[in-house]
Structures are given as structure tokens and as C-alpha cells.
Design brief:
The complex is a heterodimer. By secondary structure, chain A is of the alpha/beta class. Chain A has 13 helices and nine strands. Chain A has one domain: Alpha-Beta Barrel (TIM Barrel). By secondary structure, chain B is α/β, with parallel strands linked by helices. Classes of the chains: A alpha/beta, B alpha/beta. Chain B: InterPro entries: Class_I_gatase-like, PdxT/SNO, PdxT/SNO_CS.
Chain lengths: 293, 196
């Protein structure tokens, strides 16, 4: 019996495909998410929009909250650790969390080095804005990716930019002559071997979800249409008027992302979604997507 | 031979690829009426609670039960096994409830306990590299159920006539022997349709 292998860690993310992973801050929200059909929940102390609003240093959630959420639902539970925070990650692993998000939503603990995720038994998901970032995280052992978007804004524009960028760069690599890959690797800051693997597979070797700005069922469906394997919804659900209804609608829109009549139906009367933020109004130092490299 | 994969959520793409590698036609099933044209159905790994919500939402249940009643082969992997089982530990009601086994969810533990192991699957494959992810196992098998594989003394693969189920994920490897076995089950059932 071999635990913590790439296949086991990446396979776990494969099982989440076509699904919605929802941010929750307590057991009650976790149950609402599970009941709505979430494939996993992300246990947090504050959702990204609140982190943005309150400011200060954002850290790993209180283990009590994580434990409470783990006890409340049967679906997988994820939790966030700060970029490069070895101990937060080890603590979450020791608690039996199913997936760790080394996340730019929290204040980075290390501005130079990300975690060496291949050393852990627990799988990791990491954010990316382009193929270079994606490849570096995979190189460190991330078993799942998510495009970063701009968390806590309810504005889909950055999420669209990032998923389009990653997928366009994947297509470029797949179409390249093998002799051209080393130069591309140099330009992207990615390993040659990984680009070769992407070329052979015709896609990334790990699942890639979309995150950072999904606020409506149509936003979720848009990300799927642009080639995401699934979506993370952070502030969008529990900052809306009717979270249970909202959560169900996002799950359905993700499953049937090309069924526009259905999306019209389930978007009716959802109440007000979270109030969004114009990206240009965010100060450069408050942009979460620029954390990590 | 046309094999469908229930495409509501989970590892759908991998099963499609595996079916095609076995020389059969593969179809992603998103709506109940798409079941009619199939010779067999695979219910993939994923989150069983999510799949169940969507099965109910789109009124899949009567069609899935009808599919089973017609004697058409069904193959459940991991979450799919949970959906096929007649009993699920800790739950009063089963999901589709057609295969005479009792399964326990997440019975090997959480994700950090997920593992790979090499199994001998009786009459199907020796040295089969099996990937277990937050996997269930079969706690009890009915008298007509043939146990195909065990891992640490626990039943992890079984067949009951038209139904095939396993705790692990054959779709995550390039070993298509178990899928080929299921495609053969579907071919045999097509030749000799069961009395309805």
C-alpha cells in the first residue's frame, strides 16, 4: 500500500471535476454547501471579501473551525495555508484535512519560496495566472491548480484573463515543434520536461479549476466554457441574499454549463449577488493575485 | 457496442478514454433520455452526495432503475459503487439500490490515507494497479455476489450478474482490463437480453 503518490494526490482532484468547491466559515455553512451539492468545502476564518475589508494579516483558520467543518460534512474538506508557511501546512496535514490550498488569499509567509509540496502526503492546490506559474507549482508538487482571478471582488474579469492565458499557452505548447520547447521553457520559467509532458498529453497533467471572482451561476458556467475543470466560489455564495438557493444554482450551472435555457431558469429571482469591486479601484498592494510568483 | 458514462460530475473523461481504448463507443450521459440508446452504463468516481443531488434534480432515478430492470449492465467505480449498492452504512435509504451489497463510505479514512495497491482481480486481471481515493468498501455481499478482489481482507471488487462494482479507480491508470471486462459483459447481455 503506497500513500501520498502523485496518482493518489492528482486522482483526488480528478474526482472533483465538474464540481463546485465552496468557501465556508462554520459547520452550518458547510452543511448548506453539502446539501446544495458542493464537491468539497474550503474551511476558512473569513471569506476573501471580508479579508479584503478588514485588512491585517490573514492566516490559516483556527483549527477549531477546521475541525468543526470536518465533523459536519462527509464531502472532502480543504483549508488554506499561507504561501511558504511550512508549519501551517504541516498542522493542517496532521489534522487530516483532505486538500491544502497554498493560497494568495492569505498573507504570504515567504515572498521568495513556495512550499515543497511533493514532500507531503496531503495533496495541494495552488493558484496560477499563466502557464509558467502553473508549471512551477506543479514542479513543487501541486496536485491541482486553480487560476487565481482576483479573490473577494465578485468580478470575473481577472478569472477570465487567467484561464484564457493558461489555456492559450497550453495550446501553444501542444502545437509547438519539440525542438522549440526548450526556448519556450526558458521564456515561461517552466521545466522542459513538464512542457514535453503537456505536449504529449495535449493538456495540463493536473486538474485546473477557476477561482477568484465567480459571483453568479452565469459566471460559473462561463469559466467551464472557457475550459476550467470546475470552480471555486469564495465570497459569492455566503455573501448573497439566499445562500442555499444561490449555491444550488451555481452547482447546476456548472454541470450544465452549455444549457442556456436552464441557466436562465436557475438565475431567476436569486436576489442580490455579492456587491462587486472594480479591479482598477484596488490599490496595487491589495491585489491578491500578485502574491506568489 | 455503446457504453455511457453518467456525466453529472467526477472522472467522466477518464472513463470515456478507457471505453474507447477497449474498442467500444463512449457516450457522456447528462440527461435521462440519453440512457435509452446504451448497451451499458458506467457510474464514475466523484462525490456521491453531489451526484445524488443532481440525479434527483434531473429526475434520473426512474430511468436508472428501469435501465437496471431491463438487465442492462452497470458498472460503478468508487462513488458509482455507493450509488449502485442496496445498502449504505449509516444511511436508511440506498441511492439506486440495485446491487446486493452493503458498502461503507470513506472506510479507509480521509485523503491522507488514500493509497495505491496491486491487486489480483479474480478472472479479470492479475497485478492490477488499483488507486483508492477516500474509498468505500463492501462490508457485506449477498449470496449471488461474486467477490472479485480483496484488499487487506476487505472486499473491493464484486460482480452480481449484470452489476459490477469496485472501490478503486481503474479509470486513473492506463490499464484497461477491468473496463474491457465490463464491455464484454455488455456485449454478452446484448446477445442474450434478459427477460423483462
Amino acid at each position: 500500500m503506497r500513500t501520498g503518490t502523485d496518482r493518489v494526490k492528482r486522482g483526488m482532484a480528478e474526482m472533483q471535476k465538474g464540481g463546485v468547491i465552496m468557501d465556508v466559515i462554520n459547520a452550518e455553512q458547510a452543511k448548506i454547501a453539502e446539501e446544495a451539492g458542493a464537491v468539497a468545502v474550503m474551511a476558512l476564518e473569513r471569506v476573501p471579501s471580508d479579508i479584503r475589508a478588514t485588512g491585517g494579516v490573514a492566516r490559516m483558520a483556527d483549527p477549531h473551525i477546521v475541525e468543526e467543518v470536518m465533523g459536519a460534512v462527509s464531502i472532502p474538506v480543504m483549508a488554506k495555508a499561507r504561501i511558504g508557511h511550512i508549519v501551517e501546512a504541516r498542522v493542517l496535514e496532521a489534522m487530516g484535512v483532505d486538500y491544502i490550498d497554498e493560497s494568495e488569499v492569505l498573507t504570504p509567509a515567504d515572498e521568495e519560496f513556495h512550499l515543497l509540496k511533493s514532500e507531503y502526503t496531503v495533496p495541494f492546490v495552488c493558484g496560477c495566472r499563466d502557464l509558467g506559474e502553473a508549471a512551477r507549482r506543479i514542479g513543487e508538487g501541486a496536485a491541482m491548480l486553480r487560476t487565481k482571478g482576483e479573490p473577494g471582488t465578485g468580478n470575473i474579469v481577472e478569472a477570465v484573463r487567467h484561464i484564457r492565458k493558461v489555456n492559450a499557452q497550453v495550446r501553444k505548447v501542444v502545437g509547438m515543434d519539440e525542438a522549440e520547447l526548450m526556448t519556450e521553457a526558458k521564456l515561461l520559467g517552466a521545466s522542459f520536461e513538464l512542457l514535453l509532458e503537456i505536449k504529449k498529453l495535449g493538456r495540463l497533467p493536473v486538474v485546473n479549476f477557476a477561482a477568484g471572482g465567480v459571483a453568479t451561476p452565469a459566471d460559473a458556467a462561463l469559466m467551464m466554457q472557457l475550459g476550467a475543470d470546475g470552480v471555486f466560489v469564495g465570497s459569492g455564495i455566503f455573501k448573497s441574499d439566499n445562500p442555499a438557493k444561490f449555491a444550488r444554482a451555481i452547482v447546476e450551472a456548472t454541470t450544465h454549463y452549455q444549457d442556456y435555457k436552464l441557466i436562465a431558469e436557475l438565475s431567476k429571482g436569486l436576489g442580490t449577488p455579492m456587491k462587486g469591486l472594480e479591479i482598477a479601484s484596488i490599490a496595487p498592494e491589495a491585489r491578491m493575485q500578485d502574491r506568489g510568483w | 457496442m455503446k457504453i455511457g458514462v453518467l456525466g453529472l460530475q467526477g472522472a467522466v473523461r477518464e472513463h470515456i478514454r478507457s471505453i474507447e481504448a477497449c474498442g467500444a463507443e463512449a457516450v457522456t450521459v447528462k440527461w435521462p433520455e440519453e440512457l435509452d440508446a446504451l448497451d451499458g452504463l458506467i457510474i464514475p468516481g466523484g462525490e456521491s452526495t453531489t451526484m445524488r443531488k443532481l440525479i434527483d434534480k434531473y429526475n434520473f432515478m426512474p430511468s436508472l432503475k428501469q435501465f437496471a430492470a431491463e438487465g442492462k449492465p452497470m458498472f460503478g467505480t468508487c462513488a458509482g459503487l455507493i450509488l449502485l449498492a442496496k445498502q449504505v452504512v449509516g444511511y436508511e435509504e440506498p441511492h439506486i439500490g440495485v446491487m446486493d451489497v452493503k458498502v461503507e463510505r470513506n472506510s479507509f479514512g480521509r485523503q491522507r490515507e488514500s493509497f495505491e495497491a496491486d491487486l489480483d482481480i479474480n478472472g479479470v486481471a492479475d497485478n492490477f494497479s488499483a488507486v483508492f481515493i477516500r474509498a468505500p468498501h463492501i462490508v457485506e455481499a449477498g449470496e449471488n455476489v461474486e467477490v472479485l478482489a480483496k484488499c487487506n481482507g476487505r472486499i473491493v471488487a464484486a460482480r452480481e450478474g449484470q452489476f459490477l462494482g469496485c472501490s478503486f479507480h481503474p479509470e486513473l491508470t492506463d490499464d484497461h482490463r477491468l473496463t474491457a471486462y465490463f464491455v464484454k459483459m455488455a456485449a454478452e447481455a446484448k446477445e442474450k437480453p434478459a427477460a423483462v
